[in-house]
TrEMBL record:
EC class: transferase
Species per Swiss-Prot/TrEMBL record: Methylovulum psychrotolerans
Domain ABC1 atypical kinase-like: start-end pairs: 113-359
Lineage of origin: Bacteria, Pseudomonadati, Pseudomonadota, Gammaproteobacteria, Methylococcales
Similarity annotation: Belongs to the protein kinase superfamily. ADCK protein kinase family. Belongs to the ABC1 family. UbiB subfamily.
Protein name per Swiss-Prot or TrEMBL: Probable protein kinase UbiB
Amino acid sequence: MYPPLLRWVLYATKGNAVIRPKILMRLIHINWVLVMHGLDEIVLNTPYFRPIRFLALCTPYYWLNRKNELAVSRGVRIRQALEDLGPIYVKFGQALSTRKDLLPDDIADELVKLQDRVPPFGSDIARAIIEKELGMSINEAFAEFDPEPMASASVAQVHTATLHTGEDVVVKVLRPDIEGRIHSDMGLIYELARIAEKFSPDARRLRPMEVVAEFEKTTLDELDLVREAANAAKIRRNFDKSTIIYIPEVHWEFTRQKVMVMERIHGIPVGDIDKLRAGGADFKLLAERGVEIFFTQVFRDNFFHADMHPGNIFVELPAKYIAIDFGIVGSLSLSDQHYLAENFLAFFNRDYRKVAEMHVESGWVPRTTRIEEFESAIRSVCEPIFEKPLKDISFGQLLLRLFQTARRFDMQVQPQLVLLQKTLLNIEGLGRQLYPELDLWQTAKPFLEGWFHERMGPKAKINQLLKQFPEFAQQFPEIPSLLYKALDNAAHTQQQAEAQQRELALLREQIDSHQRHTLWAMLAGATLISLAVLFQ
């Protein structure tokens, strides 16, 4: 097994003996950024690296004035380093900020401040990508096209345009060579995670390899704009004719893997409270509808928008949401839905044993977990929270604390639950920003009880039987032949069993006979020896 650094070098050079200058410069740049933000102290304080601290003292940068950097909190230093390293590391930091079940609060809270904003690439490059993907010129596709992007992020940028039919649209274009850069940086991030997992007990507890794998999947999913368009179309169908949320329409004739064209929406950013207030927005209704939209997506549709931060949500006055950016979505299995609903209702009733049992039955924690011990741990976390008034209790924070507790009992990473927790925290934070008195518990409880009764009640069981009846009716004529085959197999099995019993009985008789003959032979031999001794 190669040392970690050598493994990375072999990865970067694809097995060649000489590292490419570009990769080498990237490694040097990353090392310099970490040093300048004082993050080398974290590494050198790891027990495995303490013996080489004296080498660090011999390097020039240690004689620089770094007191200001080291006086800043570690969370701020990590955030600033990620910002300096570039957009992929910013996205990684944003993904980490949602994993408060893994990170210390001071680091997670600071990473929330990361902004995915990068300078736009040239309009001539954007035009070339669009024309190549669509197989037509810009003028053939659009009546008007604004070369200046209205928004620019790490993966793509967005231009406004007008179709020849007169419809206003937005054109999302992936950055050139973004996939290659992501793969290159992901290789290094993976290697850093391996090093952290191997040499740092604290980092090992955070399971960095699992976190990086989860981030890689989410990021690569965002590189297929056809997939994002399909997500948008599905959620649009789910909320067709809805009065509480609107999803813009996808123009499929102009959508490809690297280009997506959608209806342009006009609304007030949900984070612009002053503008909403001036327009007469109904904040209480907006907050309650946000909760309703979340639980409707999770439990009715089983397909939810998992990136509902304020930048992706707008408001049509007085209280209708408009959602954009569907690159990240989540869904739950039917069993996950069932267990999650039961967990939530058990929380409402403070039935911690039920919560512990649900975690074990669902397979979220090992079957060997002691229910009593797990129940006690959950109670110690939740009881102090429930002493507060219900309107002051954070649903998302409670779920977060539960996940943190379950980690101690070796709960495996559940990507769908991580996305759910992240989305719930976003929705709850947004709701309380709009209406601080929001009682999420009272808003959610009737919805959960209604869903549970609808899915698990007597009527649901009857509907399930009725749904299965056509399949049963189709198989009904085959029942006699199936029954005959079953009886024939049973008879054949019985005959085989009886034959085996006869063979065993015969073998037992042979063994008994052999044992008797052996005993008589031994007795005869002993008698002869005795007589020989007597008459000697």
